[in-house]
Inverse folding.
């Protein structure tokens, strides 16, 4: 059922309306808070510099979104998945898996060798099925690249 889903990276400021939809989805599904218009500015600051992947249905409605921090320094090769949210009607259809896969792909293209996540207890099985393993206290991680990256010559 995922054939009608398109996955893309959010581009700001061009897609500010879509970013507002992402903010509302993340606040309501992850934070379990009612989204209020005054929260949008804080959300834009929160995602500044992050990788934001969106999944939209054939009507361009947002059905899932994921946010990850890219690797920040040459010494830190980890990307951190901060948020993943899927609307109720599209759960258990592979959409979250598609979003995480694209987060991983983009993070790796930015130099990440591993992605980490601090999953909610209900999400541990989901991340395990995607190849994530226990990593430290409460965290899970997945190696994206088994070979160290060579510096550009």
């Amino acid at each position: 059922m995922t054939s009608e889903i398109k996955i893309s990276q959010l581009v700001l400021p061009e897609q500010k309306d879509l970013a507002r939809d992402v903010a509302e989805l993340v606040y309501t599904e992850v934070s379990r808070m009612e989204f209020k218009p005054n929260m949008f500015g804080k959300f834009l600051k929160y995602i500044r510099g992050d990788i934001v992947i969106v999944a939209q249905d054939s009507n361009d409605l947002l059905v899932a979104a994921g946010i990850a921090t890219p690797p920040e320094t040459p010494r830190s090769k980890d990307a951190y998945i901060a948020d993943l949210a899927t609307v109720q009607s599209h759960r258990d259809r592979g959409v979250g898996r598609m979003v995480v896969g694209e987060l991983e792909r983009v993070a790796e293209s930015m130099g990440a060798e591993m992605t980490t996540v601090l999953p909610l207890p209900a999400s541990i099985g989901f991340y395990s099925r995607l190849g994530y393993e226990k990593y430290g206290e409460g965290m899970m991680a997945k190696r994206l690249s088994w070979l160290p990256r060579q510096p550009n010559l």
Observations:
- The longest helix spans residues 95-109.
